[in-house]
Protein backbone atom coordinates (compact mmCIF):
# COMPACT_ATOMS: atom_id res chain seq x y z
CA UNK A 1 0.00 0.00 0.00
CA UNK A 2 2.86 2.39 0.81
CA UNK A 3 4.25 1.75 -2.67
CA UNK A 4 1.16 3.34 -4.29
CA UNK A 5 0.96 6.38 -2.02
CA UNK A 6 1.70 9.87 -3.27
CA UNK A 7 5.14 11.29 -2.55
CA UNK A 8 3.53 13.97 -0.39
CA UNK A 9 2.67 11.14 2.07
CA UNK A 10 5.37 8.60 1.23
CA UNK A 11 8.30 10.89 2.04
CA UNK A 12 7.10 12.01 5.53
CA UNK A 13 5.99 8.49 6.47
CA UNK A 14 9.39 7.08 5.57
CA UNK A 15 11.08 9.95 7.39
CA UNK A 16 8.95 9.27 10.47
CA UNK A 17 9.88 5.58 10.36
CA UNK A 18 13.54 6.57 10.06
CA UNK A 19 13.22 8.84 13.11
CA UNK A 20 11.60 6.05 15.14
CA UNK A 21 14.22 3.49 14.11
CA UNK A 22 17.00 5.96 14.94
CA UNK A 23 15.45 6.67 18.35
CA UNK A 24 15.18 2.94 19.09
CA UNK A 25 18.78 2.31 18.05
CA UNK A 26 19.99 5.19 20.21
CA UNK A 27 17.94 3.87 23.15
CA UNK A 28 19.30 0.34 22.75
CA UNK A 29 22.82 1.72 22.44
CA UNK A 30 22.41 3.78 25.60
CA UNK A 31 20.98 0.82 27.52
CA UNK A 32 23.79 -1.44 26.38
CA UNK A 33 26.36 1.15 27.34
CA UNK A 34 24.65 1.69 30.71
CA UNK A 35 24.71 -2.07 31.34
CA UNK A 36 28.35 -2.28 30.36
CA UNK A 37 29.28 0.72 32.55
CA UNK A 38 27.29 -0.59 35.49
CA UNK A 39 28.76 -4.06 35.16
CA UNK A 40 32.29 -2.66 34.95
CA UNK A 41 31.78 -0.33 37.95
CA UNK A 42 30.15 -3.09 39.97
CA UNK A 43 32.93 -5.56 39.24
CA UNK A 44 35.58 -2.94 39.99
CA UNK A 45 34.07 -2.25 43.41
CA UNK A 46 33.47 -5.95 44.00
CA UNK A 47 37.08 -6.73 43.18
CA UNK A 48 38.32 -4.28 45.81
CA UNK A 49 35.87 -5.62 48.36
CA UNK A 50 36.78 -9.25 47.56
CA UNK A 51 40.46 -8.55 48.22
CA UNK A 52 39.57 -6.98 51.59
CA UNK A 53 37.35 -9.94 52.46
CA UNK A 54 40.01 -12.49 51.49
CA UNK A 55 42.62 -10.85 53.72
CA UNK A 56 40.10 -10.63 56.57
CA UNK A 57 38.94 -14.22 56.19
CA UNK A 58 42.42 -15.81 56.16
CA UNK A 59 42.97 -15.70 60.01
CA UNK A 60 39.49 -17.08 60.71
CA UNK A 61 39.96 -19.93 58.27
CA UNK A 62 43.44 -20.72 59.55
CA UNK A 63 42.03 -20.99 63.11
CA UNK A 64 38.93 -22.79 61.76
CA UNK A 65 36.83 -20.16 63.50
CA UNK A 66 33.56 -20.44 61.61
CA UNK A 67 31.72 -17.84 63.68
CA UNK A 68 34.44 -15.28 63.18
CA UNK A 69 34.37 -15.95 59.43
CA UNK A 70 30.60 -15.58 59.39
CA UNK A 71 30.89 -12.36 61.40
CA UNK A 72 33.35 -11.05 58.80
CA UNK A 73 31.03 -11.56 55.82
CA UNK A 74 28.02 -10.40 57.79
CA UNK A 75 29.66 -7.16 58.94
CA UNK A 76 31.17 -6.49 55.52
CA UNK A 77 27.72 -6.56 53.84
CA UNK A 78 25.09 -5.42 56.33
CA UNK A 79 22.65 -4.98 53.42
CA UNK A 80 23.16 -8.44 52.02
CA UNK A 81 19.97 -10.25 51.25
CA UNK A 82 18.06 -6.98 50.69
CA UNK A 83 16.61 -6.90 47.20
CA UNK A 84 17.04 -3.14 47.01
CA UNK A 85 20.76 -3.39 47.73
CA UNK A 86 23.34 -2.85 45.02
CA UNK A 87 25.72 -5.08 47.03
CA UNK A 88 26.25 -8.74 46.44
CA UNK A 89 23.25 -10.77 47.41
CA UNK A 90 25.03 -14.11 47.72
CA UNK A 91 28.35 -14.73 49.54
CA UNK A 92 29.88 -18.19 49.58
CA UNK A 93 33.18 -19.38 51.05
CA UNK A 94 34.16 -22.78 49.63
CA UNK A 95 36.86 -25.08 50.94
CA UNK A 96 39.45 -26.77 48.76
CA UNK A 97 37.02 -29.63 48.02
CA UNK A 98 34.41 -27.21 46.79
CA UNK A 99 32.03 -27.68 49.70
CA UNK A 100 30.37 -24.84 51.55
CA UNK A 101 32.44 -23.48 54.43
CA UNK A 102 30.16 -20.53 55.26
CA UNK A 103 27.42 -18.63 53.40
CA UNK A 104 25.29 -15.60 54.05
CA UNK A 105 22.30 -17.79 53.16
CA UNK A 106 22.94 -20.76 55.53
CA UNK A 107 19.52 -22.31 55.07
CA UNK A 108 20.07 -22.54 51.35
CA UNK A 109 23.75 -23.48 51.56
CA UNK A 110 24.42 -25.33 54.86
CA UNK A 111 27.96 -25.89 56.08
CA UNK A 112 29.93 -28.70 54.42
CA UNK A 113 27.14 -29.11 51.86
CA UNK A 114 27.79 -29.41 48.14
CA UNK A 115 26.61 -26.19 46.46
CA UNK A 116 25.78 -28.24 43.34
CA UNK A 117 22.59 -29.37 45.12
CA UNK A 118 21.27 -25.88 44.40
CA UNK A 119 21.10 -26.71 40.71
CA UNK A 120 23.15 -26.94 37.54
CA UNK A 121 24.04 -23.24 37.84
CA UNK A 122 25.90 -23.81 41.11
CA UNK A 123 27.53 -26.99 39.81
CA UNK A 124 29.09 -24.92 37.05
CA UNK A 125 30.01 -22.22 39.57
CA UNK A 126 31.74 -24.79 41.80
CA UNK A 127 33.77 -26.10 38.88
CA UNK A 128 34.79 -22.58 37.85
CA UNK A 129 35.86 -21.75 41.45
CA UNK A 130 38.03 -24.88 41.76
CA UNK A 131 39.65 -24.28 38.37
CA UNK A 132 40.57 -20.67 39.08
CA UNK A 133 44.05 -20.61 40.59
CA UNK A 134 45.28 -17.07 40.06
CA UNK A 135 45.23 -14.53 42.87
CA UNK A 136 42.99 -12.18 40.97
CA UNK A 137 39.20 -12.08 40.82
CA UNK A 138 37.50 -13.84 37.91
CA UNK A 139 34.04 -13.09 36.53
CA UNK A 140 31.74 -16.05 35.95
CA UNK A 141 28.86 -15.05 33.70
CA UNK A 142 26.60 -18.04 33.10
CA UNK A 143 23.84 -17.93 30.50
CA UNK A 144 20.34 -17.56 32.01
CA UNK A 145 21.90 -17.57 35.48
CA UNK A 146 20.24 -15.79 38.39
CA UNK A 147 23.46 -14.09 39.47
CA UNK A 148 26.58 -12.58 38.04
CA UNK A 149 29.45 -14.14 39.99
CA UNK A 150 32.90 -12.97 41.05
CA UNK A 151 35.31 -15.76 42.13
CA UNK A 152 38.61 -15.23 43.97
CA UNK A 153 40.85 -17.86 45.60
CA UNK A 154 41.72 -17.50 49.32
CA UNK A 155 45.50 -18.01 49.60
CA UNK A 156 47.84 -17.70 52.57
CA UNK A 157 51.59 -18.13 52.15
CA UNK A 158 50.95 -19.58 48.70
CA UNK A 159 48.67 -22.20 50.22
CA UNK A 160 45.13 -22.29 48.86
CA UNK A 161 42.62 -22.32 51.67
CA UNK A 162 39.47 -22.13 49.60
CA UNK A 163 37.48 -19.78 47.34
CA UNK A 164 35.36 -16.65 47.84
CA UNK A 165 32.26 -16.35 45.65
CA UNK A 166 30.23 -13.14 45.41
CA UNK A 167 26.85 -13.29 43.63
CA UNK A 168 25.24 -10.12 42.24
CA UNK A 169 21.59 -10.42 41.16
CA UNK A 170 20.97 -9.48 37.56
CA UNK A 171 17.68 -7.85 38.56
CA UNK A 172 19.65 -5.01 40.15
CA UNK A 173 20.28 -3.67 36.61
CA UNK A 174 16.55 -3.42 35.83
CA UNK A 175 15.76 -0.13 37.67
CA UNK A 176 18.57 1.63 35.88
CA UNK A 177 17.43 0.16 32.57
CA UNK A 178 13.89 1.38 33.19
CA UNK A 179 15.14 4.84 34.05
CA UNK A 180 17.19 5.00 30.86
CA UNK A 181 14.24 3.64 28.83
CA UNK A 182 11.89 6.28 30.26
CA UNK A 183 14.33 9.07 29.50
CA UNK A 184 14.87 7.73 25.99
CA UNK A 185 11.11 7.44 25.48
CA UNK A 186 10.55 11.06 26.54
CA UNK A 187 13.41 12.24 24.36
CA UNK A 188 12.00 10.24 21.45
CA UNK A 189 8.53 11.74 21.91
CA UNK A 190 10.00 15.22 22.19
CA UNK A 191 12.06 14.66 19.05
CA UNK A 192 9.02 13.38 17.18
CA UNK A 193 6.93 16.34 18.33
CA UNK A 194 9.56 18.71 16.93
CA UNK A 195 10.77 16.79 13.88
CA UNK A 196 7.53 15.32 12.51
CA UNK A 197 5.84 18.67 11.69
CA UNK A 198 9.09 19.90 10.15
CA UNK A 199 9.43 16.63 8.24
CA UNK A 200 5.86 16.79 6.90
CA UNK A 201 6.33 20.44 5.92
CA UNK A 202 9.59 19.95 4.07
CA UNK A 203 8.43 16.66 2.55
CA UNK A 204 5.34 18.45 1.25
CA UNK A 205 7.52 21.14 -0.28
CA UNK A 206 9.83 18.56 -1.80
CA UNK A 207 6.99 16.47 -3.20
CA UNK A 208 4.92 19.39 -4.54
CA UNK A 209 6.96 19.81 -7.77
CA UNK A 210 6.74 16.09 -8.51
CA UNK A 211 2.99 16.08 -7.78
CA UNK A 212 2.45 19.10 -10.04
CA UNK A 213 4.46 17.50 -12.83
CA UNK A 214 2.62 14.17 -12.46
CA UNK A 215 -0.80 15.89 -12.53
CA UNK A 216 0.19 17.87 -15.61
CA UNK A 217 1.46 14.77 -17.40
CA UNK A 218 -1.78 12.92 -16.59
CA UNK A 219 -3.80 15.75 -18.12
CA UNK A 220 -1.75 15.63 -21.30
CA UNK A 221 -3.63 12.60 -22.59
CA UNK A 222 -7.03 14.05 -21.70
CA UNK A 223 -6.57 17.70 -22.64
CA UNK A 224 -5.32 19.19 -25.89
CA UNK A 225 -1.79 20.62 -25.50
CA UNK A 226 -2.92 24.08 -26.59
CA UNK A 227 -5.44 24.26 -23.73
CA UNK A 228 -3.04 23.11 -21.01
CA UNK A 229 -1.66 25.53 -18.45
CA UNK A 230 0.92 23.99 -16.11
CA UNK A 231 2.41 25.80 -13.12
CA UNK A 232 5.65 23.85 -12.79
CA UNK A 233 8.58 24.15 -10.40
CA UNK A 234 11.53 26.10 -11.79
CA UNK A 235 15.10 25.49 -10.63
CA UNK A 236 18.38 23.97 -11.79
CA UNK A 237 18.01 20.72 -9.82
CA UNK A 238 16.83 17.44 -11.33
CA UNK A 239 13.12 18.10 -10.77
CA UNK A 240 13.43 21.63 -12.15
CA UNK A 241 15.22 20.37 -15.27
CA UNK A 242 12.57 17.68 -15.70
CA UNK A 243 9.82 20.33 -15.49
CA UNK A 244 11.70 22.51 -17.99
CA UNK A 245 11.99 19.58 -20.39
CA UNK A 246 8.27 18.82 -20.03
CA UNK A 247 7.37 22.48 -20.61
CA UNK A 248 9.56 22.51 -23.73
CA UNK A 249 7.93 19.28 -24.94
CA UNK A 250 4.49 20.76 -24.27
CA UNK A 251 5.37 23.85 -26.30
CA UNK A 252 6.57 21.69 -29.18
CA UNK A 253 3.36 19.64 -29.02
CA UNK A 254 1.30 22.83 -29.07
CA UNK A 255 3.25 24.11 -32.06
CA UNK A 256 2.94 20.74 -33.80
CA UNK A 257 -0.81 20.63 -33.15
CA UNK A 258 -1.19 24.16 -34.49
CA UNK A 259 0.75 23.27 -37.64
CA UNK A 260 -1.29 20.10 -38.11
CA UNK A 261 -4.50 22.08 -37.75
CA UNK A 262 -3.32 24.63 -40.28
CA UNK A 263 -2.36 21.88 -42.71
CA UNK A 264 -5.71 20.14 -42.28
CA UNK A 265 -7.62 23.40 -42.71
CA UNK A 266 -5.52 24.36 -45.72
CA UNK A 267 -6.01 20.93 -47.33
CA UNK A 268 -9.74 20.99 -46.58
CA UNK A 269 -10.18 24.50 -47.94
CA UNK A 270 -8.02 23.73 -50.95
CA UNK A 271 -10.11 20.66 -51.75
CA UNK A 272 -13.35 22.60 -51.24
CA UNK A 273 -11.98 25.43 -53.36
CA UNK A 274 -11.09 23.09 -56.21
CA UNK A 275 -14.47 21.41 -55.98
CA UNK A 276 -16.44 24.65 -55.89
CA UNK A 277 -14.37 26.12 -58.72
CA UNK A 278 -15.10 23.08 -60.86
CA UNK A 279 -18.78 23.27 -60.01
CA UNK A 280 -18.83 27.03 -60.65
CA UNK A 281 -17.26 26.65 -64.10
CA UNK A 282 -19.70 23.89 -65.00
CA UNK A 283 -22.65 26.03 -63.86
CA UNK A 284 -21.43 29.20 -65.57
CA UNK A 285 -21.53 27.66 -69.05
CA UNK A 286 -25.27 26.79 -69.18
CA UNK A 287 -26.03 29.79 -66.99
CA UNK A 288 -24.49 32.19 -69.52
CA UNK A 289 -26.43 30.50 -72.31
CA UNK A 290 -29.73 30.87 -70.47
CA UNK A 291 -29.07 34.55 -69.70
CA UNK A 292 -28.22 35.19 -73.36
CA UNK A 293 -31.41 33.42 -74.43
CA UNK A 294 -33.53 35.51 -72.06
CA UNK A 295 -31.84 38.71 -73.23
CA UNK A 296 -32.43 37.73 -76.90
CA UNK A 297 -36.06 36.89 -76.18
CA UNK A 298 -36.60 40.23 -74.44
CA UNK A 299 -35.13 42.11 -77.38
CA UNK A 300 -36.55 40.25 -80.33
CA UNK A 301 -39.37 38.16 -78.90
CA UNK A 302 -42.99 39.06 -78.32
CA UNK A 303 -43.09 40.51 -74.80
CA UNK A 304 -46.34 42.39 -75.11
CA UNK A 305 -47.97 39.88 -72.79
CA UNK A 306 -47.49 41.20 -69.23
CA UNK A 307 -47.42 37.73 -67.70
CA UNK A 308 -44.70 36.68 -70.11
CA UNK A 309 -42.71 39.84 -69.35
CA UNK A 310 -42.94 39.33 -65.58
CA UNK A 311 -42.01 35.67 -65.93
CA UNK A 312 -38.96 36.45 -68.04
CA UNK A 313 -37.86 39.20 -65.63
CA UNK A 314 -38.28 36.82 -62.70
CA UNK A 315 -36.19 34.19 -64.47
CA UNK A 316 -33.53 36.77 -65.29
CA UNK A 317 -33.26 37.97 -61.69
CA UNK A 318 -33.06 34.41 -60.42
CA UNK A 319 -30.33 33.50 -62.87
CA UNK A 320 -28.41 36.70 -62.04
CA UNK A 321 -28.58 35.80 -58.36
CA UNK A 322 -27.24 32.33 -59.17
CA UNK A 323 -24.43 33.95 -61.20
CA UNK A 324 -23.49 36.21 -58.30
CA UNK A 325 -23.40 33.27 -55.90
CA UNK A 326 -21.28 31.23 -58.30
CA UNK A 327 -19.00 34.21 -58.86
CA UNK A 328 -18.25 34.24 -55.14
CA UNK A 329 -16.87 30.73 -55.50
CA UNK A 330 -14.39 31.85 -58.16
CA UNK A 331 -12.05 33.92 -56.04
CA UNK A 332 -9.07 35.32 -57.89
CA UNK A 333 -6.80 38.13 -56.71
CA UNK A 334 -6.11 39.39 -60.20
CA UNK A 335 -2.90 41.28 -60.65
CA UNK A 336 -4.60 43.46 -63.27
CA UNK A 337 -6.34 45.53 -60.57
CA UNK A 338 -4.95 49.00 -59.89
CA UNK A 339 -2.66 49.67 -56.92
CA UNK A 340 -4.34 50.15 -53.54
CA UNK A 341 -4.58 53.79 -52.42
CA UNK A 342 -5.86 55.51 -49.25
CA UNK A 343 -8.90 56.66 -51.24
CA UNK A 344 -9.90 53.04 -51.94
CA UNK A 345 -10.05 52.45 -48.18
CA UNK A 346 -12.10 55.59 -47.56
CA UNK A 347 -14.58 54.55 -50.27
CA UNK A 348 -15.28 51.39 -48.29
CA UNK A 349 -16.32 53.50 -45.31
CA UNK A 350 -18.84 55.26 -47.52
CA UNK A 351 -20.18 51.96 -48.90
CA UNK A 352 -20.63 50.28 -45.51
CA UNK A 353 -22.07 53.27 -43.63
CA UNK A 354 -25.68 52.79 -44.93
CA UNK A 355 -25.69 49.14 -43.88
CA UNK A 356 -24.53 50.13 -40.39
CA UNK A 357 -27.16 52.86 -40.23
CA UNK A 358 -29.95 50.26 -40.56
CA UNK A 359 -28.94 48.88 -37.14
CA UNK A 360 -27.92 52.24 -35.64
CA UNK A 361 -24.40 50.77 -35.32
CA UNK A 362 -21.42 53.08 -34.83
CA UNK A 363 -18.28 52.67 -36.91
CA UNK A 364 -14.97 53.80 -35.47
CA UNK A 365 -12.84 54.38 -38.54
CA UNK A 366 -9.04 54.61 -38.36
CA UNK A 367 -7.38 54.70 -41.76
CA UNK A 368 -3.65 55.26 -41.19
CA UNK A 369 -2.72 54.54 -44.80
CA UNK A 370 -0.94 57.62 -46.17
CA UNK A 371 0.40 56.47 -49.54
CA UNK A 372 -0.35 53.83 -52.19
CA UNK A 373 0.52 50.22 -51.39
CA UNK A 374 1.81 47.75 -53.96
CA UNK A 375 -1.24 45.48 -53.64
CA UNK A 376 -4.20 44.95 -56.01
CA UNK A 377 -7.02 47.20 -54.84
CA UNK A 378 -10.00 45.03 -55.84
CA UNK A 379 -9.32 41.91 -53.68
CA UNK A 380 -8.19 44.03 -50.73
CA UNK A 381 -11.38 46.10 -50.92
CA UNK A 382 -13.48 42.95 -51.26
CA UNK A 383 -11.79 41.46 -48.15
CA UNK A 384 -12.35 44.58 -46.02
CA UNK A 385 -15.97 44.98 -47.20
CA UNK A 386 -16.79 41.35 -46.33
CA UNK A 387 -15.26 41.69 -42.85
CA UNK A 388 -17.09 44.96 -42.17
CA UNK A 389 -20.47 43.62 -43.35
CA UNK A 390 -20.05 40.51 -41.18
CA UNK A 391 -19.21 42.75 -38.20
CA UNK A 392 -22.27 44.93 -38.81
CA UNK A 393 -24.51 41.85 -39.03
CA UNK A 394 -23.01 40.48 -35.78
CA UNK A 395 -23.65 43.54 -33.56
CA UNK A 396 -26.91 44.31 -31.79
CA UNK A 397 -28.88 47.52 -32.27
CA UNK A 398 -26.61 50.46 -31.44
CA UNK A 399 -23.50 48.25 -31.39
CA UNK A 400 -19.94 49.25 -32.18
CA UNK A 401 -17.73 48.26 -35.12
CA UNK A 402 -14.09 49.31 -35.10
CA UNK A 403 -11.93 49.31 -38.25
CA UNK A 404 -8.18 49.93 -38.25
CA UNK A 405 -6.00 49.94 -41.38
CA UNK A 406 -2.24 50.50 -41.19
CA UNK A 407 0.96 49.46 -42.93
CA UNK A 408 4.47 48.78 -41.71
CA UNK A 409 7.55 48.37 -43.89
CA UNK A 410 6.46 45.09 -45.45
CA UNK A 411 2.85 44.27 -44.58
CA UNK A 412 -0.60 45.82 -44.84
CA UNK A 413 -2.80 45.17 -41.80
CA UNK A 414 -6.61 45.15 -41.77
CA UNK A 415 -8.31 44.80 -38.39
CA UNK A 416 -12.07 44.72 -37.86
CA UNK A 417 -13.57 44.31 -34.37
CA UNK A 418 -17.13 44.34 -33.01
CA UNK A 419 -18.92 43.98 -29.67
CA UNK A 420 -21.57 41.57 -30.90
CA UNK A 421 -22.12 37.91 -30.21
CA UNK A 422 -18.87 35.99 -29.95
CA UNK A 423 -18.07 33.00 -32.12
CA UNK A 424 -18.17 29.69 -30.18
CA UNK A 425 -14.94 27.71 -30.05
CA UNK A 426 -16.49 24.75 -31.89
CA UNK A 427 -17.19 26.97 -34.92
CA UNK A 428 -13.77 28.60 -35.12
CA UNK A 429 -12.14 25.60 -36.83
CA UNK A 430 -14.75 25.66 -39.64
CA UNK A 431 -15.14 29.43 -39.78
CA UNK A 432 -13.42 29.96 -43.14
CA UNK A 433 -15.13 27.06 -44.92
CA UNK A 434 -17.80 27.92 -47.52
CA UNK A 435 -21.46 27.71 -46.50
CA UNK A 436 -20.57 27.91 -42.84
CA UNK A 437 -22.22 31.17 -41.71
CA UNK A 438 -21.47 32.70 -38.34
CA UNK A 439 -24.93 34.22 -38.23
CA UNK A 440 -28.38 33.07 -39.11
CA UNK A 441 -28.41 35.03 -42.39
CA UNK A 442 -26.11 34.91 -45.42
CA UNK A 443 -24.66 32.09 -47.52
CA UNK A 444 -21.40 31.79 -45.58
CA UNK A 445 -19.11 32.64 -48.50
CA UNK A 446 -17.79 36.01 -47.27
CA UNK A 447 -15.19 34.68 -44.84
CA UNK A 448 -14.22 31.91 -47.23
CA UNK A 449 -13.59 34.53 -49.92
CA UNK A 450 -11.48 36.54 -47.44
CA UNK A 451 -9.42 33.46 -46.62
CA UNK A 452 -8.87 32.61 -50.30
CA UNK A 453 -7.80 36.17 -51.12
CA UNK A 454 -5.39 36.27 -48.17
CA UNK A 455 -3.86 32.95 -49.26
CA UNK A 456 -3.50 34.04 -52.88
CA UNK A 457 -1.81 37.27 -51.83
CA UNK A 458 0.64 35.36 -49.58
CA UNK A 459 -0.86 36.67 -46.33
CA UNK A 460 -2.88 35.24 -43.47
CA UNK A 461 -6.06 35.92 -41.53
CA UNK A 462 -6.70 35.31 -37.82
CA UNK A 463 -9.72 35.60 -35.55
CA UNK A 464 -10.04 35.99 -31.79
CA UNK A 465 -13.45 35.88 -30.14
CA UNK A 466 -14.70 36.22 -26.59
CA UNK A 467 -17.98 37.50 -25.12
CA UNK A 468 -18.69 41.05 -26.35
CA UNK A 469 -15.50 41.19 -28.40
CA UNK A 470 -14.54 39.60 -31.73
CA UNK A 471 -11.66 40.76 -33.91
CA UNK A 472 -10.48 39.68 -37.38
CA UNK A 473 -6.92 40.56 -38.42
CA UNK A 474 -5.56 40.27 -41.95
CA UNK A 475 -1.87 40.74 -42.80
CA UNK A 476 -0.87 41.01 -46.49
CA UNK A 477 2.80 41.30 -47.56
CA UNK A 478 3.83 43.74 -50.25
CA UNK A 479 6.97 45.03 -51.85
CA UNK A 480 10.16 42.98 -51.37
CA UNK A 481 8.53 40.63 -48.82
CA UNK A 482 5.49 39.86 -51.00
Defining traits:
single chain, 482 residues, alpha+beta, Beta-Lactamase, Heat Shock Protein 90, 5-stranded antiparallel sheet, 5-stranded mixed sheet, 10 helices, rod-shaped
Structural features, described:
The protein is an alpha+beta fold and 482 residues long. It has three domains: 2-176, 2-Layer Sandwich (Beta-Lactamase); 238-328; 333-481, Histidine kinase-like ATPase, C-terminal domain (Heat Shock Protein 90). The protein is built from ten helices and twelve strands. The protein has a five-stranded antiparallel β-sheet, sandwiched between helices. A hairpin with a 3-residue loop joins strand 9 (400-407) and strand 10. Mean pLDDT is 79; it is low at 79-86.
Shape: rod-shaped
Number of helices: 10
Task: Give the number of domains.
Answer: 3
**Major sheet attributes:** 5 strands, antiparallel
CATH domain topology of the largest domain: Beta-Lactamase
Enumerate the spans where pLDDT stays under 50 for 5 or more consecutive residues.
Answer: 79-86
CATH architecture descriptor text of the largest domain: 2-Layer Sandwich
Cα end-to-end separation: 65 Å
Amino acid sequence: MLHNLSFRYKVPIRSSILILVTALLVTVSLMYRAYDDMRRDLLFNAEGMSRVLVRTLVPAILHDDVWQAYEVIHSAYPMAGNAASVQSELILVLDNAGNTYIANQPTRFPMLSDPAVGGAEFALLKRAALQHQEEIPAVVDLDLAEYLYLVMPIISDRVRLGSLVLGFPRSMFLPRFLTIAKRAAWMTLLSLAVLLPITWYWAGRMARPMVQLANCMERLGETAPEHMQCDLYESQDEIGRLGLSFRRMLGELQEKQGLERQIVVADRLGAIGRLTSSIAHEINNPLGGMLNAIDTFKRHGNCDNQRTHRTMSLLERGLLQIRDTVAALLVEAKAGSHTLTPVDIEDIHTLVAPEAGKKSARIEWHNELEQPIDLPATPVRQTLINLLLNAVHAVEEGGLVRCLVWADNYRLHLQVANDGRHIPADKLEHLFEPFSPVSESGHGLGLWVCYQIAQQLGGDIHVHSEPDYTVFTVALPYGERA
